[in-house]
Design a protein that fits this description.
The protein has 313 residues and is mainly α. 72% of the residues lie in helices and 0% in strands. The protein has one domain: Ribonucleotide Reductase, subunit A (Orthogonal Bundle). The longest helix is centred in the middle third of the chain and has 34 residues, at 174-207. The structure holds fe (ii) ion (FE2) (2 copies).
């Protein structure tokens, strides 16, 4: 997408996660995916601390170098992440419990800790920089929710929550688990979160803004690549085991494709051409980045077909 994004996806620590989106060989459907125990060991090596980050320059940048219009535009992406991290942290418990093996459950426990750290990262950024006046995490989340879009809320509150609720009632329902992990790891983390992360980080690096945020968000992105690598491993095993699971993966991708496209296009961009760059990449550049990443991962999972229509429009 950009030189800085390419430099980041080339990083050794990012590639160590074995996320197929970072590997050229995935274009041929080949990738040495880490096993669940290896992913756990990598989690131990890739620890980081929210409280070690310094947001003092970010506070100056936010209030003195970034204008009001741009602050408002940036709020869509930032708030979608703040709220999204809280939602995925809350939904992962039933998914972890439904995973069929102990090694999978142990990795997913590490992911629950990661998602909690990501919420703490955004809460500390919002507080230290002074984005909102609200007191308390719940009040800040409610304020951030006002900056999210209708497709964003549908994806989490309807598509994800309905499947996780079903899993909470019936943890042995493997087909629903495949659907939930397709939606969570391939769509929400793999397509939306990582696309947003790489574009927001590149944009700040180009402008030289929000250095504390960039440092922390780069760690968040590395965590997400590790989570997506788990999802690719799990879905490849499930797809090989039963053709009904291949159909379940495809069903979810088809169902959410138009919603994903809606999330990639912020509401404040309505009336703006999708090729226009405005506070970052164009909508079409974001679509292309998300589609390429999904295509590589699906090839490695064993679904070589073009997955969705919306992202390739
Ligand atoms: Fe996260
Ligand atoms: Fe994640």
């Amino acid at each position: 997408m950009s030189e800085t994004a390419d430099a980041r996806t080339d990083r050794v620590d990012f590639r160590a996660t074995s996320d197929p989106a970072l590997m050229d060989s995935a274009d041929r459907g080949e990738a040495n995916l880490l096993g669940y125990e290896e992913l756990y060991a990598l989690w131990e090596r890739q620890q980081w601390s929210v409280h070690a980050l310094d947001f003092s320059q970010d506070r100056v940048d936010w209030h003195e170098r970034i204008g009001a219009d741009e602050r408002f535009a940036r709020m869509y992406g930032l708030s979608s992440f703040f709220v999204g991290e809280q939602k995925v942290a809350a939904e992962l418990g039933p998914i972890m419990r439904a995973a069929p093996t102990e090694a999978q459950r142990i990795f997913l426990c590490t992911q629950i800790a990661d998602e909690a750290r990501h919420v703490a990262f955004f809460d500390r950024f919002y507080t230290e920089v002074g984005v909102f006046e609200e007191e308390g995490l719940e009040a800040r989340l409610a304020a951030a929710t006002k900056h999210t879009s209708e497709p964003f809320r549908r994806l989490f509150d309807e598509c994800l929550t309905s499947r996780v609720d079903r899993l909470a009632r019936e943890p042995e329902d493997l087909e629903t688990l495949v659907e939930a992990i397709t939606l969570y790891h391939m769509v929400i983390e793999g397509m939306l979160a990582l696309t947003g992360q790489h574009t927001i980080i590149s944009y700040n690096e180009r402008l030289g803004t929000l250095p504390g945020f960039v440092e922390g968000f780069t760690n968040v992105a590395r965590d997400e690549h590790r989570h997506v690598a788990f999802g690719a491993r799990f879905l490849r095993e499930m797809a090989q085991a039963d053709p009904r699971h291949v159909a379940a993966i495809q069903r979810v991708l088809d169902e959410v494709a138009p919603i994903v496209d809606g999330v990639l296009k912020p509401p404040w961009r309505s009336g703006v051409d999708d090729d226009t760059r405005l506070y970052g990449p164009s909508v079409n550049e974001s679509r292309a980045f998300a589609a390429k990443a999904l295509e590589r991962r699906l090839k490695v999972i064993g679904l070589g077909v073009r997955p969705t229509h919306a992202v390739a429009d």
